[in-house]
Amino acid sequence: MLLDTFGRVATDLRVSLTDRCNLRCSYCMPPEGLEWLPKPELLTDEEVARLVRIGVTQLGITEVRYTGGEPLLRRGIAGIVAATTALEPRPQVSLTTNGIGLERLAGPLAEAGLDRVNVSLDTLDRATFKRLAHRDRLDDVLKGMAAAQAAGLTPVKVNAVLMRGINDHEAAPLLRFCLERGYLLRFIEQMPLDAQHGWTRENMITADEILDLLGAEFALAPDELADRGSAPAESFAVAGHERDGRPATVGVIGSVTRPFCGACDRVRLTADGQIRNCLFATDESNLRDAMRAGASDAELAERWRAAVRGKRAGHGIDDPSFLQPARPMSAIGG
Hints:
Elements: E1 12-16, H1 45-58, E2 63-67, H2 77-85, E3 92-97, H3 102-111, E4 116-120, H4 126-133, H5 138-150, E5 157-160, H6 171-181, E6 184-188, H7 207-215, E7 220-222, E8 234-243, E9 246-253, E10 266-269, E11 274-276, E12 285-286, H8 287-292, H9 297-309, H10 329-332
Parallel strand pairs: 1-2, 1-10, 2-3, 3-4, 4-5, 5-6, 6-9
Antiparallel strand pairs: 7-8, 8-9, 10-11, 11-12
């Protein structure tokens, strides 16, 4: 098992397939983009598959989520997914994407065994989308979501980040849009993971504020049917709406103001082969170089265990000594 000193067991592996992205969302990277990792530093498809296999067959990983950057930019993604879903025991396999390219790839990914997708969508307004992402691609995202649903990659989960004075007025319209289409919406507090290091608590829309914005139009109540477990989202039932014969829900992920570190079961593998035991970790464990130097599966597994053992009790954002990670979200993987 991947056990830390606080008794938490990591079973959920987030794998970044690339640090590149075809959007420039303001809370992630500057409009001009970033300096991408050189290709020789990235894990090959075979190296990704090997490390995921070790995680699943030797270390107790039961869920694998592929992220980026934008993971759909990885040419071998369907093959990587197929190799993952062929493992025994078979893990749950999902994908977090901005949705661009999903219209074309939803079918092949479903055929490879992908279980579901999370799509980032912060606005329904074309002008606001262009302002936030510095690209005019809203229609592509919406088409990708519809294609994922048609391909059976359900429930299609939608991740939205509200920003003060930009899209915070769209909380209720986003929920209404998702309820009408059978998507599962989750609002996420903006986190200090932007490349520009411009995040401030004052500009962040908190979980309480999100619930107030939704409450102006919808009647919400804690979802009594949900077993949150280690899930990051608090689930709320939306009165008067149903999905699959049960009350429809909306999720709120209060990563900053309502941290869930005590139940965290996640571990991350970056596109260049570094193990991170926390999204906000300031150090990493290099599996890539050890693997390329000839390390056995058992040796790599032990390095992985050691990396997780050192996990801190929490992310420490409220601590005066908190330091934002040197890597931005696009280079860490969500």
